[in-house]
Amino acid sequence: MKKIVLATVALAGFAFAAAPASYNACKACHGVKGETNITTQNKSHIPANLTKAEIVKSLNGYKDGSYGGALKGLMKGQVARLSDADIQALADYMGK
């Protein structure tokens, strides 16, 4: 029985992707896996509800200033340091 439990726990670990290091700055507002917008008082999208392509488009838009609403200034600063690879990793982690 102990072996079955250990095997189940080990396999479950593979089912959840690890957060990219660049996500550390995101989770304060967007939750552990992009599942919330509660700290932004519903002024932002819930990233986990977006497709990977929508996340890439929005993060690139924040970066170049072509996208955003009430939190545009905050987000522009957050994404300024992200590379294209970082943005894709975030989309892969949070998106549908």
From TrEMBL:
Is the keyword Heme assigned to this protein? yes
Write out the coiled-coil annotation as residue ranges.
none
> EC number(s) on record?
5.1.1.3
Give all residue intervals belonging to the Cytochrome c domain: 7-96
What is this protein's name? Cytochrome c-553
Signal peptide boundaries? 1-17
- What SUPFAM superfamilies does the annotation carry? Cytochrome c
Sorted alphabetically, which keywords does the UniProt record give? Answer: Electron transport, Heme, Iron, Isomerase, Metal-binding, Signal, Transport
What class does this enzyme belong to in the EC scheme? isomerase
- Highest taxon of source: Bacteria
Q: Which molecular function terms from Gene Ontology are attached?
A: electron transfer activity; glutamate racemase activity; heme binding; iron ion binding
Q: Extract the Pfam families matched here.
A: Cytochrom_C
